[in-house]
Amino acid sequence: MALVQPLDPNHDPDTKKLAEFFNETLGFCPNSVLTMQHRPAISKAFINLNKAVMANEGRVTSALKRMIAWVSSNATGCRYCQAHAIRAAERYGAEQEQLDNIWEYRTHPAFSEAERAALDFSLQASQVPNAVDAEIKERLYQHWNEGEIVEMLGVISLFGYLNRWNDSQGTDIEDGAVESANQYLGKHGWEKGKHDGSKY
């Protein structure tokens, strides 16, 4: 059971309007956002930040951004965000081979060197203590410009917030997210954990 219960999607009209964004990304409004509505200023600010971070202004595709989010969430252990990120990557056109082999991104031929650099950056930036160093900076600059690196770090930082929120909250995971996680992550041991609605 979640720490705080989500509110009805109609609780705050402004949040409801902004949350239409998630119908495209996930196919539903996340329970995390419905919980943030207890303080609508937080839900609205979060959705606007999410929209800004996920906007594509360079070569960092929507699919890659969601894979960056998955690596970050995997590093921190948030199963809720792992499921959401892999679902969104699927909905934004990530290649089937990438979805099936996300755990092996460092060695699988479905991933380019540019993508590997981005995903390694996500892994290093999501660790505590932070592991970003001169080597990853050099690799990033071989493939990406500064604006694109800022986009990536925006995704990593956004999911740092979400990982803290959802793992502390024990947010109940939605059926659609469970379906995607089971399909792509289940073979590696993904399970709902505290997000199943009864264990917390």
Could you characterize the architecture of this molecule?
The chain is mainly alpha-helical. The chain contains eleven helices and no strands. Helix 4 runs antiparallel to helix 10, helix 5 (62-76) crosses helix 10 and helix 8 (113-125) runs antiparallel to helix 9. The chain is globular.
Element order, helices and strands? HHHHHHHHHHH
As residue ranges, the low-confidence spans are: none
Query: How many alpha or pi helices?
Result: 11
Q: Specify the overall morphology.
A: globular
User: Averaging pLDDT over every residue, what do you get?
Assistant: 95
- First and last CA, distance: 5 Å
Helix content: 55-70%
Number of strands: 0
Question: Strand portion, in percent?
Answer: under 5%
Give the structural class. mainly alpha
- Largest sheet properties: none
What's the gyration radius in Å?
A: 16 Å
Question: Which key terms come to mind for this protein?
Answer:
200 residues, mainly alpha, 11 helices, 62% helix, globular
Report a brief summary of the structure.
The protein has 200 residues and is mainly α.
List the topology elements:
Elements: H1 13-18, H2 20-25, H3 31-36, H4 40-54, H5 62-76, H6 79-91, H7 96-100, H8 113-125, H9 134-143, H10 146-169, H11 175-184
Helix pairs in contact: 4-10, 5-6, 5-8, 5-10, 6-11, 8-9
